[in-house]
Design a protein that fits this description.
The protein has three helices and no strands. By secondary structure, it is an all-alpha fold.
C-alpha cells in the first residue's frame, strides 16, 4: 500500500528527474528529443507549491474534483 507522503515524494522526485533531463551539463548524453519532452512535461507539472497545497488539504489544487 502506498502512503500519501510516498505519493507526494514520487511527484516531487519525478519533477527533479525531469529538471535533470533538461540540463545538458548534468546529463550530457541525453538525446535532444528526450530533453524536449522533459521540458514540455515540466510546463504543466505540479510545482512544489502545488504539492504543498495538496498536503495541506486543498484536494482541488488541480482544478478537478475527481480523477
Amino acid at each position: 500500500m502506498t502512503l500519501p507522503y510516498e505519493r507526494v515524494n514520487a511527484v516531487n522526485n519525478t519533477r527533479e528527474l525531469l529538471y535533470l533531463l533538461t540540463d545538458p551539463k548534468k546529463t550530457p548524453k541525453v538525446p535532444k528529443q528526450i530533453r524536449e519532452v522533459a521540458s514540455g512535461l515540466l510546463k504543466h507539472y505540479p510545482t512544489s507549491l502545488d504539492m504543498k497545497m495538496v498536503t495541506e488539504g486543498d484536494g482541488n489544487v488541480f482544478g478537478i474534483k475527481e480523477f
